[in-house]
């Protein structure tokens, strides 16, 4: 029976034959899955590229995440990195390593997550190739490509004193969802599936199109908030040689500063902020991150090499 098939019993060729039809195609695809490499159009002569891994244990837990969740989240986390450069996501390359006794149906649902995630967040972006291997630890690695459409990239190093700091998307929801999972989901993860905060953690929906909007509006810097506002804002401030003074009233909660994985976009604007962004502070002289003029010293956010005790990130 189909539902009983495993990666080991079907083999790589059989698995790929069942996964390929479920994956999203890319509008930029000139040659897609099935050859030694894909061929993707780069109309303006450049392409933006990023890569990210999700590993069972530090990055997700199968006790909480469905295979569909994993495909969606892997797409979202890479699409938002492309968007933060002011580019349009065009193509993904996906590599998965999984135990040989993994059901083929599991990877089919991962593929469904990629397809529906791309359709919802970045229409026209698709999976053009990848790799499949065996491992005791489930790992999903994605490389994403994007098109700048003739515009300069929006980097981390362009923020200037006097710019408005603004964000598109939610702040702190994914961290709050992760906290709920740690507090209650270990025993009854299914009971939390529909909680909006848990959905924000398991299936984030970053505002991918806002990256281009910000670029066209003259954003001087931008970053994907994958590791938490405080940590990622420090990265932009350091690269730009400035400080970010954030408004506590605009942030609302501590989760907004220290929680990661929202995959929202943080940008700086010399004039009016772009549509879809809301102001949360100003760029000032100095270094680091301030809140209402006072230094914010807490590390916060997610660092895979730091001690981790189940805090959001």
Report on this model:
Strand 12 and strand 13 (294-295) form a beta hairpin. The model is unreliable at 307-313 (pLDDT under 50). 50% of the residues are buried. This protein has helices at residues 7-19, 67-83, 104-121, 173-185, 196-202, 210-216, 229-240, 248-251, 254-258; strands spanning 29-31, 39-40, 48-55, 88-98, 126-134, 139-147, 164-168, 221-225, 243-246, 264-269, 278-284, 288-291, 294-295. It has 313 residues and is of the alpha+beta class. Helix 1 runs parallel beside helix 3 (104-121) and helix 4 (173-185) packs across helix 5. A seven-stranded mixed beta sheet has the order 8-10-7-11-9-12-13. It has a four-stranded mixed beta sheet with strand order 3-6-4-5. It has a two-stranded antiparallel sheet with strand order 1-2.
Shape: globular
**Approximately what portion of the residues adopt beta-strand conformation?**
15-25%
Strand tally is 13
The percent of residues in helical segments reads 25-40%
Rounded to an integer in angstroms, the radius of gyration calculated over CA atoms is 20 Å
SSE pattern, N- to C-terminal: HEEEHEHEEEHHHEHEHHEEEE
> Number of DSSP helices?
9
The first-to-last residue Cα distance is 40 Å
Largest sheet features: 7 strands, mixed
Structural class: alpha+beta
């Amino acid at each position: 029976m189909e539902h009983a098939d495993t990666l080991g019993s079907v083999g790589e060729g059989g698995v790929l034959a069942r996964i390929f039809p479920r994956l999203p195609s890319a509008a930029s695809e000139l040659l897609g899955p099935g050859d030694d490499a894909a061929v993707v159009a780069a109309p303006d002569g450049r392409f933006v590229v990023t890569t990210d891994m999700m590993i069972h244990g530090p990055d997700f837990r199968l006790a909480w995440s469905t295979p569909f969740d994993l495909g969606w989240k892997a797409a979202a986390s890479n699409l938002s990195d492309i968007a933060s450069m002011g580019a349009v996501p065009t193509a993904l390359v996906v590599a998965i390593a999984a135990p040989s006794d993994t059901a083929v149906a599991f990877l089919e649902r991962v593929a469904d997550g990629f397809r529906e995630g791309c359709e919802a967040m970045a229409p026209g972006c698709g999976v053009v190739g990848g790799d499949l291997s065996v491992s005791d630890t489930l790992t999903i690695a994605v490389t994403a490509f994007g098109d700048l459409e003739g515009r300069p990239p929006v980097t981390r190093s362009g923020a200037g004193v006097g710019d408005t700091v603004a964000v598109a998307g939610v702040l702190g929801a994914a961290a709050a969802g992760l906290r709920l999972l740690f507090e209650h989901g270990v025993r009854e993860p299914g009971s939390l599936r529909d909680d909006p905060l848990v959905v924000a953690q398991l299936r984030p929906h970053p505002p991918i199109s806002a990256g281009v909007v910000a670029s066209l509006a003259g954003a001087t810097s931008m970053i994907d908030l994958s590791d938490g506002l405080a940590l990622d804002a420090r990265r932009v401030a350091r690269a730009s040689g400035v400080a970010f003074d954030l408004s506590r009233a605009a942030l609302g909660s501590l989760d907004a500063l220290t929680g990661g994985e929202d995959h929202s976009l943080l940008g700086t604007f010399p004039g009016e902020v772009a549509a879809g962004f809301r102001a949360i502070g100003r760029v000032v002289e100095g270094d680091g991150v301030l809140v209402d003029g006072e230094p914010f010293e807490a590390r916060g956010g997610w660092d895979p090499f730091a001690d981790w005790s189940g805090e959001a990130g």
